[in-house]
Structure to design on (80 residues):
């Protein structure tokens, strides 16, 4: 095995083991940049709206049954 393959294997194993740590660290860096770039309250608004959107998407995923997503989003009642 070449040194390059060994390196990529080691990096891949590290990323798999510490996936959440790396992801949340990058989120923290992104938030810090947003705080400095656009200010605290605008960043809080972006994070809050993102959380509301994520919660709504989670709710839609949870409620999805055999009906299509269009029927949920647009209340399609052609069968009625």
């Amino acid at each position: 095995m070449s040194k390059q393959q060994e390196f990529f294997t080691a990096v891949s194993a590290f990323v798999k083991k510490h996936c959440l740590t790396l992801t949340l660290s990058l989120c923290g860096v992104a938030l810090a940049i947003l705080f400095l770039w656009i200010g605290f309250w605008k960043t809080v608004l972006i994070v809050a709206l993102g959380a509301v959107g994520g919660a709504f998407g989670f709710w839609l995923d949870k409620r999805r049954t055999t009906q299509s997503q269009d029927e949920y989003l647009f209340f399609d009642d052609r069968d009625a």
